[in-house]
Write a structure and sequence with these properties.
The complex is a heterodimer of chains A (225) and B (243). Chain A is an all-alpha fold and 225 residues long. Chain A has helices at residues 2-10, 12-47, 56-71, 74-80, 82-89, 95-119, 123-131, 136-167, 178-187, 192-220. The radius of gyration of chain A is 20 Å and the shape is elongated. Chain B is of the alpha/beta class. The chains are: A mainly alpha (225), B alpha/beta (243).
Chain lengths: 225, 243
């Protein structure tokens, strides 16, 4: 035990650095999820056949895109994206570069989740907006999002947690992060106690993220249950 | 004035079509309280939704003050709809917004922030004290009163009511109907009331259309019930009705 403590102290700097790297990747993923995924999910909802603004070709294109991104095995996706990543951020190596494939996956995941959350908003809410003469942006901002907000928070929480898991692979392109630390020291140099310690760190951080998401969702949900 | 001329409405259902309304012609005058009655499936809700063009007629024309809403561009149609309030069977309140915000929502759509108008409307339906609550904290009758205040907040000239009392018990029904009669008397609003409950129509409407399987079976003047049939409390009504 004192042996572990000593090693933890020795690797303290690297552990803190890897936690920071994971944090950067999480933040980038969440930003992509909200800024890209949520609009795509909203368009999927609005443009679907039978939806408020049916646009079959747009719906089909977005739907295909989301399915493709979600179906390619993640490790393969990271590698396949290398030329694009290099063109976008100038390098294919490091934490920033690692954020690119993560951001794509996070956006696609959240697009699907937010579409499903919006589908749970009662049809009467859309009918009310139409009867009041709401335009498309008003429908979204004053009716759909306010009514769906707790579901949107919960699904963003789920996406974030999935990203913690996806980010462990990013060591492949030098992304670093907690997962990479665990694999390098735990798996590759047989320091299992270090690996289990980092796994524990990840479990705890997932629990904290989930707890915060659930709490926030409950606070902003004023509907009858 | 609202005119329907030879209106037919059918919906696609699988590979066939279902005809909801067949060749309806009728005129509703300004300031009238007009009932539409019929069994469920008779097409009465569809008829109501043709008036603010939530549904487009398959053939025939619907004119609101001489204007065919079907010919308008989306933006102009939305403008016109703001002049036609709507009240729903299930109230359709926004569960995450307060009573005040629900009533203010139609004004916000027009970028108007008129606190006083909202409070006046809530006072009119006697819900001003509840303006900070959320809909889940209200009873059915209270929810419908808030929904009426919301429909009135933009002072529409026409108010469409789709089974407004069907989710309510009889005492609350009379309370809501009294408010709707007040709306007509005080604001001169044209009210079109869809209901399957004949006594609701009889207690308040001037004329009524009777629908049967999508056809206009009758158009009749309504004879108001004797005054004492309007009860104030459930107990009073129950005693009279059962005894």
């Amino acid at each position: 035990m004192s042996d572990l403590l000593a090693r933890l102290t020795e690797y303290r700097g690297e552990i803190v650095l890897s936690i920071l790297e994971t944090g950067i990747m999480m933040v980038n993923s969440m930003v992509a999820a909200v800024l890209v995924g949520l609009p795509i999910g909203t368009l999927l909802y609005l443009a679907r056949p039978g939806g408020p603004y049916p646009r079959p070709w747009l719906h089909r294109a977005l739907n295909t895109y989301v399915n493709v991104v979600r179906s390619v095995p993640f490790l393969l996706f990271v590698v396949a994206l290398i030329p694009f990543t290099r063109a976008l951020v100038g390098t294919s190596f490091g934490t920033t570069a690692a954020s690119v494939p993560l951001a794509f996956v996070a956006a696609a995941l959240y697009a699907r989740f937010s579409e499903q959350t919006l589908l749970d908003v009662p049809e009467q809410t859309v009918e009310l907006a139409r009867s009041l003469g709401a335009g498309p942006l008003q429908l979204i901002g004053l009716f759909l999002f306010p009514e769906a907000r707790s579901g949107l928070v919960l699904s963003l929480t789920t996406v974030t947690i999935s990203m913690v898991s996806y980010s462990t692979i990013m060591g492949v392109v030098g992304g670093g992060g907690v997962g990479d630390f665990a694999i390098r020291y735990g798996y590759q140099t047989y320091e299992y106690d270090l690996m289990y310690t980092t796994i524990l760190i990840m479990v705890v951080s997932v629990m904290v993220i989930q707890g915060a998401g659930t709490l926030l969702a409950r606070i902003i949900d004023k509907r009858a249950r | 004035m609202i005119e329907l001329r030879n209106v037919t409405k059918s919906f696609p259902q699988g590979r066939s079509t279902v005809t909801a309304l067949t060749d309806i012609t009728l005129t509703i005058e300004d300031h009238e309280m007009f009932g539409i009655v019929g069994e469920s499936g008779s097409g009465k809700s569809t008829l109501l939704r043709l008036i603010n063009h939530l549904e487009a007629p398959t053939s025939g024309t619907v004119l609101v003050d001489g204007e065919n809403l079907g010919t308008l561009a989306p933006r102009a149609l939305r403008e016109r709809r703001r002049d036609i309030g709507m009240v729903f069977q299930q109230f359709n309140l926004l569960g995450n917004s307060t009573v005040f915000d629900n009533v203010a929502r139609p004004l916000r759509l027009q970028r108007r922030r008129e606190r006083d108008t909202v409070m006046q409307m809530l006072e009119f339906v006697k819900m001003a004290d509840h303006h900070r609550k959320h809909p889940s904290q209200l009873s059915g009758g209270e929810k419908q009163r808030v929904a009426i205040a919301r429909a009135l907040s933009t002072q529409p000239r026409i108010l469409l009511c789709d089974e407004p009392t069907s989710a309510l018990d009889s005492g609350t029904t009379e309370e809501v109907m009294a408010i709707l009669r007040d709306v007509r008397d005080r604001f001169g609003t044209t009210i079109i009331l869809v209901s399957h409950e004949l006594d609701v129509i009889k207690s308040s409407c001037d004329r009524a259309a009777v629908l049967e399987r999508g056809r206009l079976a009758a158009l009749t003047e309504v004879t108001p019930p004797p005054a004492q049939e309007r009860f104030d409390s459930y107990a009073e009504r129950a005693r009279e009705f059962l005894g």
